[in-house]
Task: inverse folding
């Protein structure tokens, strides 16, 4: 039997970064392929007979989206199709390919977006804007039972702005004031009801190492963080084992304890641990304790300062890096004194992971510290400071990399057959700050149209 629960929010500190500028603009390798941008409204050819549900949605007729370029963003492969068509039926991607290869059924509604591009909805795995901020996740140093089920507010104003920027899915998580903040929920930004918005619950267990929770109560150091995290995970593993033994051998049924139920998901591989971790020493602790010792599926959140130096070890152990929003490590006295990081140059954090051989690097905002709608800007900043974009690394870091990281790569993050039809209509490369989102579909439903009112 599957059990799904979730969690609420607070925020962490960060460093402001500059916009994309100069000659290191993203998408240079694709710029020759980019068509001339247009601001004309999207033409729509309506089906002769309107159905009960709009085209593309469950129960409605099919929808055909035609575009000069479709960024399909599959994990392996070219990641794009020129002069393409995307077929959507019952909220899912039915087909995608070149117009010469895809036959559009006669009863499908056709939307030709012209020179605009199509791409998958973007995903942010570190967000605090999914609802209210009134849940206290700082009672104990470890609070694995904290849930955000009473905090979620679907389609709240901050989520409406995020969808206007093409961000269709967020991991709404507790804050980083304690070592174990509680359970996050993976949710879509557009739907107006709780049931429609939730993708998976729990989305993750939020853990925080040094770089915030040392301020809790009497103040604790890095070694004590490791002690609390290891002890909490060990107790959770014991709880999980008691249920596994009961399910396999019978005997007395264990007592259901909401404080530890999330560990049944974690140790069964049905959810991940997301870790606020951002200097080399504690990034290594994440790899050693949570991945190697406990065997849990875990990923790095933030990963800033000199955390990138552990990039090779992280990649070798399957620990993905979702980096930001402090995407640049600066040789500045205050930061050097706080973190111990003393870079010899202005160091791009995402670029550092890539230089160390990590190939599953994504981006986050820590919204509202950085507004949720500025997720694409995090990719732009990464490129400005050395992250490559010759193979759509930035676009994948906004889509399929976070989808795969959160265990939802079979449903989200790319425009492939059978996946959710979360589709963004955009005027150009998403990591180029000059690009603008013109329309967004979630589960095949058109939930944002800039021609009616532009929010971002």
Result:
């Amino acid at each position: 039997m599957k059990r799904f629960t979730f969690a609420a929010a607070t925020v962490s500190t960060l460093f402001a970064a500059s916009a994309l500028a100069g000659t290191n603009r993203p998408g240079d390798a694709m710029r020759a392929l980019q068509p001339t941008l247009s601001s004309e409204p999207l033409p729509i050819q309506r089906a002769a007979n309107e159905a009960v549900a709009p085209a593309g949605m469950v129960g409605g007729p099919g929808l055909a989206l035609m575009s000069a370029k479709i960024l399909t963003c599959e994990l392996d492969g070219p990641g794009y199709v020129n002069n393409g068509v995307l077929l959507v039926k019952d909220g899912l991607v039915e087909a995608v390919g070149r117009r010469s290869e895809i036959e559009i059924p006669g009863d499908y509604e056709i939307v030709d977006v012209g020179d605009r591009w199509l791409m998958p909805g973007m995903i942010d795995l570190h967000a605090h804007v999914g609802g209210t901020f009134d849940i206290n996740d700082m009672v104990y140093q470890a609070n694995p039972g904290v849930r955000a089920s009473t905090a979620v507010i679907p389609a709240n104003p901050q989520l409406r702005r995020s969808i206007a920027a093409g961000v269709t899915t967020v991991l709404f998580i507790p804050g980083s004031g304690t070592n174990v903040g509680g359970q996050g929920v993976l949710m879509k930004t557009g739907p107006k009801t709780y049931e429609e918005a939730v993708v998976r619950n729990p989305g993750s267990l939020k853990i925080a190492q040094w770089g915030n929770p040392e301020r809790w109560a009497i103040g604790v150091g890095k070694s004590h963080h490791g002690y609390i995290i290891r002890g909490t995970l060990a107790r959770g593993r014991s709880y999980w084992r008691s249920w596994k033994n009961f399910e396999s051998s019978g005997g007395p049924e264990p007592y259901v304890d909401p404080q530890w139920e999330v560990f049944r998901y974690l140790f069964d591989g049905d959810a991940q641990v997301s870790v606020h971790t951002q200097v080399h020493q504690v990034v290594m602790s994440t790899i050693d304790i949570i991945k190697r010792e406990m065997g849990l599926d875990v990923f790095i959140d933030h990963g800033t300062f000199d955390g990138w130096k552990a990039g090779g070890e992280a990649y070798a152990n399957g620990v993905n890096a979702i980096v930001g929003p402090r995407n640049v490590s600066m040789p500045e006295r205050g930061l050097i004194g706080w973190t111990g990081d003393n870079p010899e140059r202005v160091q791009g954090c995402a670029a550092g992971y890539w230089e160390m051989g990590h190939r599953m690097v994504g981006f986050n905002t820590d919204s509202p510290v950085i507004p949720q709608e500025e997720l694409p800007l995090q990719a732009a900043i990464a490129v400005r400071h050395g992250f490559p974009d010759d193979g759509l690394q930035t676009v994948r870091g906004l889509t399929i990399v976070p989808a795969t990281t959160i265990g939802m790569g079979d449903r989200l993050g790319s425009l492939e057959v059978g996946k959710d039809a979360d589709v963004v209509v955009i005027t150009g490369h998403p990591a180029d700050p000059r690009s603008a989102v013109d329309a967004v579909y979630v589960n095949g439903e058109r939930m944002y149209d800039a021609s009616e009112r532009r929010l971002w």
Notes: The two ends are 42 Å apart (CA to CA).
